[in-house]
Amino acid sequence: MTDEIASGQRATEHLPWGAVWGQDAAVRTLQAATADAGGMTHAWLITGPPGSGRSTLAHAFAAALIAEPTDHAAMRQVLAGSHPDLTALRTERVIITIDEARRLVERAAFSPSLGRYRVIVVEDADRMTERTSNVLLKSLEEPPERTVWVLCAPSDADLLPTIRSRVRTLRLREPEVADVAALVSSRTGASAQIAEQAARHAQRHIGMAQRLATDDAARERRDETLRGVLAVRGVGDAVRVAGRIVELATDDAKALTAERDAQERAQMLRTIGVAEGQAVPPAVRGQLSALEDDQKRRATRSLRDGIDRVLTDLQSVYRDVIMLQFGREEGLVNVELAPDMRALATSWEPRRTLAVLDRIQHTRRSLEQNAAPLLAVESMLVTVATGRVP
What we know:
Layout: H1 3-13, H2 24-35, E1 43-47, H3 54-66, H4 72-79, E2 86-89, H5 98-108, E3 118-122, H6 130-141, E4 147-153, H7 161-164, E5 168-171, H8 177-188, H9 192-201, H10 206-214, H11 216-230, H12 235-271, H13 285-325, H14 338-347, H15 350-368, H16 373-386
Parallel strand pairs: 1-4, 1-5, 2-3, 3-4
Helix pairs in contact: 2-3, 3-4, 5-6, 8-9, 8-10, 9-10, 11-12, 11-13, 12-13, 12-16, 13-14, 13-15, 15-16
């Protein structure tokens, strides 16, 4: 038997759970649910830290629900996101809109067309406002007999109590740094040292760890950002470093979205029969304009997500600082910055470090409410520089 055939058989044997990593208990729970139709819960909430595999597990669960256990072709179709009985929403916007929620509810009302269940997966349920959440309530409470909702969010606290009361919550475990490092090394071929550093800096976020392990520029941007903040000593520094943080986050967002934007535009032009370099006919300019608007919204989200990652990195730095202030040396995230963090730990009181951590969290909430990124980051760094809240 060739290695290729053996590999294909092993992948088939593990369908649909093969891509789920490090969540054995959660997989067992969902496998038991799919096997017990009488005890099946029709609305689920999968929670766990970013990178823990919430959406991967949700889609594996959907495949197990929709396809017969021996129908591997249907399982692969669900996992690829192309099965007609799967509706998955991962919003490209800052929030999930009411119109998007209404479309989900409409889809949920249909009976399965080919599979055993119709499954609605909402990967970013924490991005629903209160009004949007209310659109889902009745469908979550009384879904059609063969419809299953699967919501994903970092924490059940990110959703309204009325939503939480209508779902069964499944909490994912957070993997160890060594486990993430081993996975990243095996997937990317990165050295053990780079993989360990990436897993630690990503705080066990698997996707981010893989990116840090394989993208030199991403590692350099992270290092520059954190060293710049640690060097802030006055308001002038705060303004300068804030501008640089937003600039780096913008560059990072462009790197993540530019290629996809170009591919989408080229695909649309091919679909409507416009050759490269040819003028776009007036009749289809509206379609192209709508695509560009969607891409701008995605770019806005990507920038805010990038700044949120910076804030997560900064939280790890000041968490390390307060650990050093209380004599804890083990478990530091940013070992490479230890000399600078020790200097800060000796020159600051712990209450100032805690004030900075509070300000970082406040900045995150402000950005979620559409505050201007530059002003929000400047305000946070003024607290870093002075110890005072603006």
